[in-house]
């Protein structure tokens, strides 16, 4: 159980509590579906999960089955051999004790232990292989699918919530696949085997033990469920701390600029305290209930010895058989206990898999329509006719826009903040579909062509450029993966990025961290320009792309873009309508 939490965070410094209700405060870091710890058992979902094992079933499952059978037989044989040792070799009813027989039985027991151990090793090895492959496939499926989902999906969800599903939720299924499913089968087989043996040895004693099963099962599941929920609660609170930490570190510059460190500390302290309290609760429950679970097994043994002794006195049972019986009963509680745990594990898996399948089942709202054709190489005539668009139902971001851009034209969209300039750009690339009206490129309705063939011909440079971790060269190459080094340097020169790149310690091979923090905003934009030029799109869209670039460089870029874009469209979208950089370089539309 994960108890990796600092339990004494408040001893040195007294920090004032926030007045706000802590639950309310922490809600900021939880997506509404993400804090469901468990969900009711759902057979369809379980079969869907198990279907991930299908590709490996033929190869690996028979091997696992074989190891299971060997392990179970050897395990069940040991108590039987022990009873033979006592009743036949140590204290036989008829005749003298036989040391030779005792040696033989001891060696047989040893061999059984060794076989059981080896079978166990291989079984774990094979189950791990299958478990890891299933988790790999599930994670890959989820990631592949998430990459295809449309912008409006991400508009609705915090990035952290998406991240948690690919990491935590997939990981929480790991146990189910590596141990759970196989253990479930082993335990069921073992239980049936033991019940049969117990009844065969002595049906009265067997029945007495079996009657206690439901009580034990109930106690073990119910108590465990409470302990596990308490630890899950700790986990949730810890992941809220992580989310807050993430946000605090990302926003540290703003926090320090506005001297909000103390306020931020209070907020953090509130969460930290929450985590500490939940840890205290879980820990207390563990200490209180844990031993209780252990002694439930003792209760069964009590009945066994009392009734067993009576039966021996009545001559219905031998000492050897009673000892074998005790061992079987020991083996009996183990699977029952594990089945209780397994049931809990299954409920957690239900919650995780529901969240995972919710994403996998989410259809991208922007996808190729049936019969969509590839958009041929376009000239670049763009036409918007009475286009209406709503991000959310009932709230129009664009109200009947008409726009006619001829191929080869460079135009600038100018308008107030929030007037819908970026929205038009989003619609052109089909990041969203228009709500009403008509949007065509070269006369093709953009919804009638494949998304890939459309986006391949449109290049976008945003103000908030995204630089991936990797080298500068790799970042530019993102525009066209098969570009040569010469082509990359050529576009870098064209946009005026070459000069600063060669001055970097590693030149084009300099590693830039995620989001390009070591580069200035303007340098990041230059890389982004180079990337877009390399892609050689038929329509180039600049969304406030020159906002962070000095005038001289901007003129250089626009010059090279115009020569590179001769015969292509250049759409420039500026933020403000007076001091708009777009107006300096382009005719304002
Ligand atoms: N993802 C979104 N979900 C919901 N509403 C949005 C979304 N993006 C933009 N909007 C809304 O749509 C309207 C137009 O936004 P848009 O980003 O197109 O404006 P803009 O003209 O590009 O503004 P700016 O010059 O500030 O970049 C705004 O009212 C904005 O609140």
TrEMBL record:
Keyword ATP-binding set for record: yes
Membrane topology field: Multi-pass membrane protein
Record's keyword annotation contains Secreted: no
UniProt region (Disordered), positions on chain: 1-25
Keyword annotations from UniProtKB, A to Z: ATP-binding, Cell membrane, Hydrolase, Membrane, Nucleotide-binding, Protease, Thiol protease, Transmembrane, Transmembrane helix, Transport
GO MF annotations, alphabetized: ABC-type oligopeptide transporter activity; ATP binding; ATP hydrolysis activity; cysteine-type peptidase activity
Domain ABC transmembrane type-1, first and last residues per copy: 63-346
Compartments (UniProt record): Cell membrane
Coiled coil: none
This protein's GO CC annotations: plasma membrane
Principal subcellular localization: membrane
TM ranges: 60-81, 101-122, 181-201, 207-225
Superkingdom of the source species: Bacteria
InterPro entries: AAA+_ATPase (IPR003593), ABC1_TM_dom (IPR011527), ABC1_TM_sf (IPR036640), ABC_transporter-like_ATP-bd (IPR003439), P-loop_NTPase (IPR027417), Type_1_exporter (IPR039421)
Domain ABC transporter: 382-583
Any Pfam family matching the protein: ABC_tran
Protein name: ABC transporter related protein
